[in-house]
Automatic annotation (TrEMBL):
Keywords: Isomerase. It comes from Asticcacaulis taihuensis. The active site is at E105. This is Ribose-5-phosphate isomerase A. It catalyses: aldehydo-D-ribose 5-phosphate = D-ribulose 5-phosphate. Catalyzes the reversible conversion of ribose-5-phosphate to ribulose 5-phosphate.
């Protein structure tokens, strides 16, 4: 089974957790897109849902499928959020942000009673850090912020410089107007400590470590969907 087939498999499986009347957060990326497509089928068949989105990209997809996306500020606490990830590690610690939507994703995840992460088998890893860790940075005085990020990384034995994400010749700008820096950590042995120290830096808007947020992981594979708990 290809990675894309696995992504569809888990997107469809996640849609089975959605019940009539729920308020649901829609994630971002190629895996979450399968979930959005599965939900669109349910809504076409008559299911009533209140939906919010984690990115402009997902809003555009959802609306193209006939779904209505509400403003998160008008919706209150969500019943469920379903989103992809770049890595799913022990205890369902995640790296997210490969699609540069990490800030709005984390805001939506934190406003949901329950969060399901969906991923193909290759993303299920014994240790986080092979996928570069995205860090969202306020553009003003970014050079100073990046120097302070590097100092924090060294404290965690990560001797890699953050690399600014580009889109062609220009810096990648997030939906919230910020820069993204990617850090090829290699291995993150203390994700909680690193998450705390990065978040404490002025200029760091947020980072792609999602810890203690996922309630369930649905992992695709040849033998069907594996359900993981923290
Ligand atoms: O965090 C994300 C976007 O910010 C995505 O969920 C993550 O990058 C996974 O994407 P894909 O399903 O396309 O592999």
């Amino acid at each position: 089974m290809t990675a894309d087939e696995q992504k569809k498999q888990v997107g469809d499986a996640a849609a089975e957790y959605v019940k009539d009347g729920m308020k649901v957060g829609l994630g971002t990326g190629s895996t979450a897109a399968w979930f959005v497509k599965a939900l669109a089928e349910k809504v076409k068949a008559g299911m009533k849902l209140t939906l919010v989105s984690t990115s402009i990209q997902t809003t555009q997809l959802a609306e193209s499928l006939g779904l209505v996306i509400k403003d998160i500020n008008d919706v209150g606490v969500l019943d469920l959020c379903v989103d992809g990830a770049d890595e799913v590690g022990p205890g369902l610690a995640l790296i997210k942000g490969g699609g540069a939507a990490l800030l709005r994703e984390k805001l939506i995840w934190e406003q949901a009673k329950s969060c399901i992460v969906i991923a193909d088998a290759a993303k299920n890893v014994p240790l986080l850090g092979k996928f570069p860790l995205p860090i969202e940075v306020e553009p003003f005085a970014w050079k100073g912020t990046v120097n302070r990020i590097s100092d924090v990384l060294v404290d965690f034995d990560i001797n890699m410089m953050p690399k600014v994400r580009m889109k062609g010749e220009s810096h990648w700008i997030t939906d919230g107007g910020n820069l993204i820096f990617d850090v090829a950590c290699g291995a993150i042995h203390e994700p909680a400590g690193l998450a705390h120290e990065l978040k404490s830096l002025t200029g760091v808007v947020d980072h792609g470590l999602f810890l203690d947020l996922a309630d369930i992981a649905l992992i695709g594979g040849e033998d069907g969907v594996t359900v993981l708990h923290p």
